[in-house]
Amino acid sequence: PLGSDLELTHYEVSPNLAGRTVQTITLPGELHVVAIERDGKSFLATDSSTLQAGDTLHLAVLTSASDKVAS
Hints:
The chain has one helix spanning about 20-25; strands at about 5-10, 30-40, 40-45, 55-60. By secondary structure, it is mainly β. A 4-stranded antiparallel sheet has the order 1-4-2-3, with no helix packed on it. The radius of gyration is 12 Å and the shape is globular. It starts with 5 loop residues before the first strand and ends in a 9-residue tail after the last strand.
């Protein structure tokens, strides 16, 4: 269990985020991209990982920041 302060969730990359890097969407201390699933394969995300439309991001998010995931 992660406790009540942290959520693990997923988010599908929309076309408007395609081409951005993980670093540009990370919110230090609030939202961290843990892994990316693309074309049926998963890999650990790095700051320089480039997002593609349709990717599924696996995120660790503070509960207090969960409203920022959809932003």
